[in-house]
Amino acid sequence: MGRDTEVLVIGGGSTGCGVARDLARRGLAVTLVERGNLTHGTTGRMHGLLHSGGRYAVADRTSARECIAENRILREIAGHCVEETGGLFVDRGDAGGYFEEKLAGCRDAGIPTTVLSGREAREREPALAADVERAIAVPDAAIDPFRLCVANARDATAHGARIETWTEVVDVLREGEEVIGVEVRHESGPGSRVHGRSGSLERITAEYVVNATGPWAGQLAAMADLEVGVRPSKGAMAITNVREVDTVVNACRPKGDADILVPHETTAILGTTDVEVDDPDDYPEEGWEIDLLIEELSKLVPALADARIIRSFWGVRPLYEPPGRGTEDPTDVTRQFFLLDHADRDGVDGMATIVGGKLTTYRLMAERIADHVCAELGVDTSASTAEEPLPGSEEPAALEAEMDRFGLRSPVARRSRQRLGSRSREVLDVDDPNPVVCECEAVTRAELRDAIEDAGSDLNAVRIRTRASMGNCQGGFCARGMAAELHPRYDEPTVRAALDELLEERWRGQRHALWGMGLSQAALNYALGAATMNRDGDPAAADGSIEFDDFDAGQRRPDGGGRQ
Amino acid sequence: MAIEDDVLVVGGGLAGSIAALSAAERDLRVRLVSNEGSTLRSASGLIDLLGYTPDGEGPIVEPFEHLTDLPAGHPYERVGRRAVREALSVFDAVVGDAYAGAHTDANALVPTAGGSIKPTARYPASVAPGLASDPRDTLLVGFERLPGFDAPLAAASLEATGVPFRVRGVTVQFPSIECDDAAITRHARALDLDERVEGVPSRAALAERVRVELDGAARVGFPALLGVDHDEVVRRDLAERLGVAVFEIPGSPPSVPGIRLEERLRSALAHAGVRVTTGVRVVDYEGGRGDSRNAGRRIERVLVERSGRRVPYRADEYVLATGGLVGGGIDSSRAGVREPIFGCHVPHPEDRSEWFADDPFGDHPFARFGLAVDRSLRPLTADGDPEFANLRAVGAVLGGADFAAEKSGSGISIATGYVAGSHAGREAAA
What is the pTM for the complete model shown? Predict the structure, then answer.
């Protein structure tokens, strides 16, 4: 038919990247478009839990079974994104019969469990409250959604996929009862993003279009005159500056807000709330949600009451339920995923929408979609994504010994290896000096430069690849150093715009956690930026020009030797 | 047995030091107690007086002309323009030749490590040859292992501000340091000591690496690390070897010019007979009751935590110079904002969502958090009465000004330190 690509995937979250990887590995020509960075939507705004399925074991057995199966697969194929923390469902004496229900549900779903006494639970996780009476241990884990997504995209690219970030779909093209592609706006033209480069429009035709836009699925479908009743639901999360726990801690109770705490690298993430919103791009971020997280979760882990919160953020879930169920409370809506084939459903060929689901099952969702797409296109292949490791997760054992060669001091080496996995050698084996640019997260120049190869001038894309600027200082000390790595490849105005954008993004997450040390750090960052650097008053960014002659030009020395 | 003094200053930064020196003008026992290391180590070492108006107009050429237009409650408004001028001359006398800028009332525009320029009233002698109104062509030099200052980028940014000279930037390797993560201060010490690498002293080696890059530049700017203790010698040595002027560009912490200023203030305090106790924290106070409007309410003694014990320190007059949100003089929690030692009232909105602006460099209410004071700098209660008859507050613990946006931090510290120290001295001597 002479289309530009076989499959066009819309959405660069875990699902979209997973679909792109799967189809590219099957040999199909794939183009993925994402309106922001990879992970810009829901994927980048979650609590980082790799579910064991225990959370759904009572109310949603299908989701529970899918979770435990995928949990096992991701530990194999994405080892460098997963941290084996284990998880606990803890009972402070208020769980009652629900504790046994949970246990039975886990057994039925095939989730391995161990019942612990309060004392045993505290031996495993010393931060737990003294009144925890018993707990169920499950194979929960922590997962880095950024690294996971980027690794999927990297593998897709290696198999011939085209991935375009900062590329927004402005129209879905229909010919009669068939979707034939999309029109997109590239913010700075095709390819890596470069600030200040002018944008362009492109028509991309495709034999099949996959709408993997999560909470935005309804808006996207509307461009094709289709209706998808996705129910966006916001959840608040907060990040502590230190790793308050080493184990995922869940409250053992039927449902509710503020019942999970996930260790994540040097931090821990508190979650979450569940409130339906009208528009996934515009919803209130409310301080009470953060207060609630701290108050509720400090009952399980008392140290949280005085913990330093470095950021808070909100994510929007792509909840969906088939027509006719009429569930009112969003916490009761199933976490299962649904593949909506618009040919079956609406009589419109060439497009499917994926809604619901969760990060833990992203690969399975991607496989189902890829199977569907292949069936539609008459391609006879099968998925390999459950067996083939992602880039970074090959040959895990050989790494340890290798790290000495890169001359990094040991905590830096360890953190670099955790992030880069089997890519460490390729990234860190450089001849030039390789200083640490981000001290909090131990990110070296070589790692930043590697990320810039991939991310263009987009420092937020560099950030999600490296964790630079995600620690205590939230970029106050390191953001300028990160920006400097863009120069001279990118010119001064580009670097300036990139830095402004990074600082804005960092500030957005700090604003709602401004008290105690967090406010002191914010005040210091502000003073460094404004008082020391004069970034707020920088004449280069202001209108008008300066009469330099009016200002002090220095004083001649009394010995007549000219200016000092 | 309490430690007894006439005037006790709590806090060892710029404001506290100037307050102690001003009180010590009289024949009094003056003591300064401070934590380890002040925020001077994080500050640029420049003495900003007023670079922008509270409305953001600027850069201001003549700061003194704007001091009378400030809103009520602004620390400069509290002390008045004349006191600011007197205070600045006290500072000038303390630092002597180590600082420049006193020859004019006009602000100087100083290049920053981020490649901007900022208005300031006094600047270290090491910074003087780099002023942006001086039209000499300029070379900026950065070091490969110090990511905090990227010279080629800073040069490009500086050019974008419209400076009246040509400016280029180069990156070289610092001679005697092989480690990837040596601190700025480690570099400064290497130059102080003129460490040898393969027989070549590091200053000569550095000059050699920079000389080939000069290409007609009449001055060379380095990140501010040209020696801590012997900075003048280091600069002169480099300038002679290069045959051009050499200057420093202030930047991120740890700030070598800040450390130099702190050392200079410490030696002035010693010279003035001020007793300095460092590494201790004032944690509480004991005081008598006043009447219903606090009149006559006095601090009797403060409690200092020292090796796990609380030791009373007693004085007639007290000066609070503990810094703002950054220095720890103002503390906050989800419940609100407070002054932790004396519990002085800190005006602030109850709703936390009103503490900040949405833009990272917006008009942040938190930047103005601090104590409200009367004209003799006594902290005020919510009702506007003095909290204590014998407590004055100075520097960043004061509210009412966004020193970062105005570029007024050091000036406020010096002016209020001078006024409060003089008042405390007068009261204690009476």
Answer: 0.90
